[in-house]
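Lab manual, section 2.4: Encoding a predicted structure.

Procedure: take the sequence of the chain (94 residues), apply the prediction step described in section 2.3, and record the output as structure tokens. A sample record is shown.
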Amino acid sequence: MQKQSSKGHARISFKQSFERAEYLLFVFIILSHYCKSYPKLGYAKLNNKIYPFFTFTTRSLLCFTDIFHTFYVNGKKVVPEDIYNILTIQGLAH
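Recorded output:
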């Protein structure tokens, strides 16, 4: 999750290696109604090797901002004590 500014809304970015494209597409289908574009192919360079990946980003929305503030406190990632009341079993697995 990320916020582009302190006053803006949060969005979710998702990136997976080329080998995990099927999983990324599965997640994209679930979140596609929050997105304005399809997944894109990108390339990352690490240790002088090129690695392909797929990525997509949701729109910046208030519903994601509420989630953002639950999991990011004072700029740090946190796991809420009541996480089992916040996420479904499927959400926790992802």
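Check your result against the sample. The beta strands are 2-3, 10-11, 13-17, 40-46, 49-57, 72-73, 76-77.
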